[in-house]
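User: C-alpha cells for this one?
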Amino acid sequence: MLERAERVGGETVIGDKGYAGKGFAEAVGELEATIVRPARKDEPANGLHLAPIRRRIESIFWTCKDILTLGRHGARTLHNLRVRIAQRFLALAAGIALNHKLGRPSRALVD
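Assistant:
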C-alpha cells in the first residue's frame, strides 16, 4: 500500500505491533519511509506510547462510518466515491460552522 501512495520521501508510518521484522523495516526504508510501532512483548521497550494517536484515528474512522454513513456510500466508481466523501465532509463542516455561530454544541446536527 505504501508503494502506491503518493510520497515525497521521509514519511512516518504508524503501525501496530504486527508490523514488525527486519525485512519489513528494510522494505519500508527502501521506500524512504520510517515505520513507528509499539514494542512487542519479546522486544525491549522503545518508549513509544501510541494509544492517543490510535484513539484519534479510530474516532475519525467512527465519524466517517457512523455520522457520514461512508460504510454505505453506494458509489460505483472511485471518482464517485471521492465526490460523495467530499460532499459529506463539506456538509459536516458547514453544520459545525453554523452551530458555532449560533452558540450550539458543534456536533448537534439534528436541529
